[in-house]
């Protein structure tokens, strides 16, 4: 049976670059500099106070920092800090936050020491929230999001505002001060993710969006940070890292152009590397073959960093400098410090643009872009589709048995690679085996708890998304009290179809109830999610 057509979402036209706000005639440069220094000093004091309080309960021992090969009795080698953040506790978020936080935490636990037999790294869990301006407000009693995160096992660390936009400088032509409050998803509050750099009790800290899931141990990343390159373990770790590094990163290091390969292999490029950060990029947010593929924003759902107070202060000071200039052409003198990392990046003024500039320009040799199918997989197509006029519109590859040459709606095709390379099959995440992905991200597949259905089939993206959703519910079923679900009350069509990606990358159809197969009894019907019960205190 042919799938029912769906209309593409309406296109959005690019916004014009913000106009620069004129210099206030009654404010001297010296006065602005004093205000910025005060803001940075306030941030430094906040870090000291925050870490002093955190140290009282930090589950870290001195052995976590020894660069030696541990015996089983000395495991874990180190404890990795995992963090999530929220900037506003909306009713919609509060309604599903407990489930999201519980399943994400559980997914990390079962791939970490001591549960997973192949991991040598433990895990600690933190949640960043914004402090209330009311000194008498107790979030533990009144904030439902704070309560959900705490009950889910995350240590809630309320943060001061990451930035005071009114103190941002205004160099001539800068649009940062005027535009940062409305930039990206969350404006300047998105910078709360930088608090990950303050988790200095840990040799490595990872910030994840709440709609992610960790599927495998990430020791291949941690070993590079833990073991120096001259040691036997360090050499082995860097060879393993070469298998998961993004080909665009290896190209950039080898030739200076992420779309063009060079003579150096990935193993050679990474042989002696010291890593301070891992990240992925969002190629769906740029127009390829328009210079933008050389200046791509980071994907904010996954950031792994070596914590450092100095780096935190440095990044905040970059924002206060005001050194961001409007423009969409990915060329100097636009973007951060006129480097070209500009408004063509979604979230350019905060995490996505700022960190792309920092990792690519200032810390290229110590920051590694990872293959986004292995880390932060969103089941996206590596190529632009002819489905929509806007090349940024993401669309999976049309399935052969769905194609209809007589119907334009079902006759679209793939075009050029989004990352500018001639061949990008190694980052075609819509067909990448879910079982090989380390981190899954549901931003494109939509949140599992939405229970949106599972019988729609048009592109390779859909069966991969269904498998990713099944994995989320599988992890939920491992939480104590969540297993042994009955399927008696599940509604659905018992004849299917069920769609699966085969090992050869093609789609196989089977008979069965997809509601039972992919949602495992946690969705009773379309949009009827059976939520977890909060524990009683």
Give your account of this protein's structure.
With 537 residues, the protein is of the alpha/beta class. It has helices at 29-55, 91-109, 139-142, 144-151, 176-179, 219-226, 232-244, 247-255, 266-270, 309-321, 351-362, 461-477, 514-519, and strands at 78-85, 121-130, 155-159, 205-208, 212-214, 277-281, 298-305, 324-325, 335-336, 367-369, 383-385, 414-417, 439-441, 498-501, 507-510, 523-525, 528-529. The strands form six sheets. Strands 3-2-1-4-7-6-10 form a seven-stranded mixed beta sheet. Strands 5-13 form a two-stranded antiparallel sheet. The longest helix is centred in the N-terminal third of the chain and has 27 residues, at 29-55.
Mean of all residue-level pLDDT scores: 88
Number of DSSP helices? 13
Q: Could you describe the largest sheet, including whether it forms a barrel?
A: 7 strands, mixed
Shape: globular
The topology string of helices and strands comes to HEHEHHEHEEHHHHEEHEEHEEEEHEEHEE
Q: Which parts are unreliable, with pLDDT below 50 for 5 consecutive residues or more?
A: 1-27, 48-70
**First CA to last CA: what distance?**
51 Å
Trace the largest sheet across and list its strands. Answer: 3-2-1-4-7-6-10
């Amino acid at each position: 049976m042919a799938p029912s057509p769906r209309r593409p979402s309406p296109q959005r036209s690019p916004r014009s670059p913000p106009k620069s706000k004129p210099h206030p005639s009654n404010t001297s440069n010296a006065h602005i500099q004093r205000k910025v220094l005060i803001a940075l000093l306030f941030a430094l004091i906040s870090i000291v106070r925050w870490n002093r309080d955190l140290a009282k309960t930090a589950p870290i021992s001195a052995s976590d920092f020894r660069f030696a090969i541990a015996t089983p009795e000395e495991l874990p080698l180190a404890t990795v800090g995992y963090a999530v953040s929220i900037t506003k506790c909306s009713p919609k978020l509060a309604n599903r936050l407990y489930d999201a936080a519980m399943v994400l935490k559980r997914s990390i636990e079962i791939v970490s020491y001591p549960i997973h037999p192949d991991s040598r790294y433990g895990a600690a869990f933190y949640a960043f929230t914004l402090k209330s301006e009311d000194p008498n407000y107790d979030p533990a009693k009144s904030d439902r999001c704070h309560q959900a995160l705490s009950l889910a096992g995350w240590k809630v660390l309320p943060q001061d505002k990451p930035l005071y936009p009114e103190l941002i400088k205004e160099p001539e032509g800068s649009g940062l001060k005027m535009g940062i409050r409305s930039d990206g998803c969350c404006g300047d509050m998105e910078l709360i993710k930088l608090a990950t750099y303050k988790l200095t009790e840990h040799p490595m800290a990872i910030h994840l969006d709440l709609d992610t899931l960790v599927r495998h141990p990430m020791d291949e990343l941690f070993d590079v940070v833990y073991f120096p390159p001259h040691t036997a373990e360090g050499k082995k770790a860097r060879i393993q890292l070469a298998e998961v590094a993004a080909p665009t990163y290896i190209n950039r290091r080898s030739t200076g152009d992420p779309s063009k390969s060079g003579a150096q292999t990935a193993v050679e490029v990474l042989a002696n590397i010291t890593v301070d950060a891992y990240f992925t990029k969002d190629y769906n947010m740029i127009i390829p073959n328009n210079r933008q593929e050389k200046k791509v924003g980071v994907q904010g759902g996954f950031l792994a960093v070596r914590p450092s107070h100095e780096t935190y202060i440095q990044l905040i000071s970059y924002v206060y400098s005001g050194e961001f200039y409007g423009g969409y052409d990915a060329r100097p003198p636009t973007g951060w410090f006129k480097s070209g990392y500009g408004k063509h990046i979604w979230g350019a003024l905060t995490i996505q643009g700022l960190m792309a500039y920092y990792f690519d320009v200032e810390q290229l040799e110590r920051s590694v872009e990872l293959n986004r199918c292995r880390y932060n997989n969103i089941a996206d197509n590596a190529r632009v589709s002819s489905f929509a006029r806007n090349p940024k519109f993401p669309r999976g590859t049309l399935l052969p048995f769905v194609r209809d040459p007589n119907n334009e709606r079902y006759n679209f095709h793939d075009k050029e690679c989004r990352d500018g390379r001639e061949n990008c099959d190694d980052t075609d995440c819509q067909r990448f085996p879910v079982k090989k992905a380390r981190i899954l991200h549901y931003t494109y597949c939509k949140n599992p708890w939405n229970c949106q259905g599972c019988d729609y089939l048009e592109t390779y993206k859909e069966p991969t998304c269904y498998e990713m959703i099944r994995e989320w519910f599988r992890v939920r079923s491992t939480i104590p009290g969540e297993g042994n679900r009955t399927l008696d009350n599940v509604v659905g069509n018992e004849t299917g179809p069920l769609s699966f990606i085969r090992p050869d990358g093609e789609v196989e159809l089977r008979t069965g109830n997809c509601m039972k197969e992919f949602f495992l009894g946690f969705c009773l019907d379309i949009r009827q999610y059976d939520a977890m019960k909060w524990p009683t205190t």
